[in-house]
Amino acid sequence: MTSYSVVGTGPEAYERYLVPALFAPLADAMLAAARPVGGQRVLDVACGTGIVARRAATAAGEVTGVDVNPAMLAVAGRIAPGIRWTRGDAAALPFPDGSFDVVFCQQGLQFVPDPAAALAEMRRVLVPGGRVAVALWRNLVHSPGFQALTESLDRRAGSATGDLMRGPFRMGDAGDVRAMMAGFADLHIAVWRHAVRFPSVAAFVERQVAGSPLAGPVTALPATTRRAIVADVTDALAGHTDDDGLVFAIESHIVTAR
To answer: Most exposed residue of 49, 84, 101, 171, measured as fewest CB within 10 angstroms of its CB?
Structure first.
C-alpha cells in the first residue's frame, strides 16, 4: 500500500478544512451508533487531530486518543488539552487489557499495515462486552468528487499520486469488512451517506491537497498542471454545483460490534 502520512502544515489544514467537511459529521454519526455514556472509558484509535475523541468527551467519561503521527497529535493537544493524547501504533496499542468500554476508529484502519492485528488489539483493550465502532469509506465509485480527483491525478501526475487518493477508499467492500471483523459479536454494518460541500471545485482540490499527503507531489507539479487538474475536476463535476458552490455525496460504512 502507498504510504499515507500527513506532514508539514498538513495537520493544520486537515483540521481547518477537512474535519468540518468530512470528519466531524461522520464523528457525530459514529457516536450516535456506539452511544458512549458518562463514566465510560473511550479510546479513539488513529485519532488524527482528534475529532471523534473531542465529540466523545461531551458524552463519556475518560477519553484517550492514540495516533502514530506526532504532528496530528500536536494539533489535537492544542485544541483539546484536557484529553489524553498518546503516540502509539494501532497494531500494538500501549494500553493494558480491558482498559476501555468503547473503542472508535474513524477512517484509520485502511492505513494500518496489518488491519487484522489492529482489530485484535481493539478487542484486547476492550472490556468484555465492550463496543467498537469503525468507519471506512465505501468504494470510490460512491464518492464522485474524490473519484474525479483521483482520475485527474492519474492522468496528470501519475498513478502513484492517484494511489494516494485511492488509499482512503481501499477497504470499501462490506463483505470484506464483515469477514475481517468476524472475531467480534453482534456485528452491524450501516451505510452512512453525507453531502460534502466546498465553496468551489478549486477550493475542494486545494483543500484536499493541503490537508493530505497529496501536498508534496501535487505542489511540486508545474502551475499549468495544477490548473489542468482543477479544470479536469471542474468538468467532471459540472452536475454537482449549486448557488453555494460544490456539493457531492460520500458514503461510509459505519461498523459496530461487541
So the answer is: 84
